[in-house]
Structure formats: structure tokens, C-alpha cells
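User: Please fill in residues for this 264-position structure.
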């Protein structure tokens, strides 16, 4: 691995520690604020459920103040109420371990700054397929492929070689299963930072704003001149896209298309 790759890993590790610190801080500050309000007005905060709901709202507000990514808001909002609900139901202890294990398998890279498992819509897959057709590309990579929402539909074109890169174990396993009958598709159980982008004419990613600057450097460094990089939802800082495609789906997704310049 080259020096730039090691620097990305260090950045990811630092991002993970900061994310964990902010998450614990939001929960602790939410709990402290709730305890203070309960001490000041005991009658208004009587009962565990009311306290849990107030703590959830307070933790979500602190998360926003600490500038955590938006997907942390429902996590903070529901964390304590969900914990109380599970204790109230007196569920078997192995179920807690199973829940944690499943969450870890699905959201493997979230703590390090990755986007949780957000599925790209069929409309996004169709839009990307149309772009790939216009590019006449013979190699396509989906970085952070999830369960193959984009990679699998594109692999229906037998002339296109599709690689789906996903490091979270459970989404990767689902993608591998979906690709089992597609000889031109492969599910890669590896970090996107280990992917050599020089092999692909078109590369697609739906990741996180936290990694877009580093990913942009990787794209510029590795992709061949004339290649096209497509980022779903998140632009690359300080790089003007060749085109922005507006997708008519529920999230009003934008596809930022970046062309690798050919040498003059």
C-alpha cells in the first residue's frame, strides 16, 4: 500500500474516534440535561418513558450541535427508549447479542465515517445505466455497493464487467448471492481504498461527505484519462462536475459526474 493509502487509513481511524466521542458526548449531555430538568421540575418528568423520550430529544439536539451526520439523529432519538423497551419486554439475553451482531454486520464502516446502509433507488440505477451506455464503458465499479442496488441491475448488460466493492459482511453476502448467476459481475469483500480505479471506465459511489475529498484525490490519481466518476448525493470539494443529473426519486438524488481530463 502506498503512502497516500496509509494516510487515508489514518484519517479514517481519526474520523472513527471523533465519531465515537461525539456519539457518547451527545448521549451524556442529553442525559445530564434531562436529569437537570427532572430535578428542577419533578412533576413534569415523572415516569421512565417520559424521561427516556426527553433524553432522546436532548441527545439528538446535542448530536446536531456537535455536527454529526444527519443519520445519527434517529439513532440518538431512539437509543434510550429502545433500551428501556427491550428491558421492559424481558427479552432473552441472547437476543441482545444477536441484535448487536446484526447491526455490526450491516453498519460495519459507519463509525469510521461511512454512510449507513442507504439503498439507491431503482431510478438511480436506471440513470447510472443510461450514463454507462452513453460512455460505452466495458468496466464499472460500485464503491460501497451495499446490497447491489446499482451494481446488480447494471450487470444485466452482459458486455459490461461489473465489480461491487463492499466491506460490510452482511450486505456483501447479499450482493454476492445476487451476483451468483451473473458471470460478468463480482462482489469484492474489501475496502474501496484497496480498489485500483485504473481498471474501470466508469466508477460510481454513494458514500459520505467525510471521505469525498480523499476519494476525489484517489479518483484523480488512479482513473484513466477520459474516465467518468459518478458520486451520488455528495459532491467532491473543489472539483467542478462535468454534469449534474437530477434523478426523479423520493430523495431527489443528484448524480455528480466528474470527467478525468485527457492530456493535451
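Assistant: Residues filled in for all 264 positions:
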Amino acid at each position: 500500500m502506498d503512502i497516500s493509502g496509509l494516510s487515508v487509513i489514518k484519517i479514517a481511524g481519526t474520523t472513527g474516534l471523533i465519531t465515537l466521542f461525539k456519539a457518547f458526548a451527545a448521549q451524556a449531555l442529553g442525559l445530564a440535561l434531562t436529569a437537570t430538568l427532572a430535578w428542577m421540575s419533578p412533576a413534569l418528568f415523572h415516569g421512565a418513558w417520559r424521561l427516556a423520550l426527553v433524553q432522546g430529544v436532548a441527545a439528538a439536539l446535542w448530536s446536531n450541535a456537535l455536527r454529526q451526520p444527519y443519520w445519527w439523529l434517529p439513532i440518538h432519538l431512539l437509543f434510550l427508549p429502545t433500551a428501556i423497551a427491550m428491558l421492559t419486554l424481558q427479552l432473552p439475553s441472547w437476543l441482545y447479542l444477536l441484535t448487536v451482531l446484526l447491526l455490526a454486520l450491516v453498519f460495519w464502516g459507519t463509525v469510521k465515517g461511512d454512510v449507513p446502509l442507504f439503498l439507491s433507488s431503482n431510478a438511480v440505477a436506471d440513470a447510472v445505466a443510461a450514463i454507462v451506455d452513453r460512455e460505452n464503458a466495458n468496466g464499472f465499479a460500485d464503491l460501497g455497493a451495499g446490497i447491489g442496488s446499482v451494481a446488480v441491475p447494471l450487470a444485466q448488460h452482459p458486455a459490461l464487467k461489473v465489480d461491487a466493492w463492499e466491506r460490510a459482511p452482511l450486505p456483501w453476502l447479499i450482493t454476492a448471492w445476487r451476483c451468483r448467476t451473473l458471470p460478468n459481475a463480482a462482489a469484492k469483500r474489501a475496502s474501496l481504498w484497496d480498489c485500483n480505479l485504473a481498471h474501470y471506465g466508469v466508477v460510481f459511489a454513494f458514500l459520505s461527505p467525510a471521505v469525498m475529498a480523499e476519494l476525489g484525490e484517489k479518483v484523480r490519481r488512479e482513473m484513466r484519462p477520459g474516465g467518468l466518476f459518478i458520486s451520488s448525493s455528495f459532491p467532491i470539494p473543489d472539483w467542478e462536475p462535468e454534469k449534474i443529473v437530477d434523478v426523479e426519486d423520493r430523495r431527489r438524488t443528484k448524480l455528480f459526474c466528474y470527467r478525468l481530463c485527457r492530456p493535451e
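For context: Helices lie at 3-40, 48-65, 72-88, 93-106, 122-135, 151-154, 169-178, 212-222.
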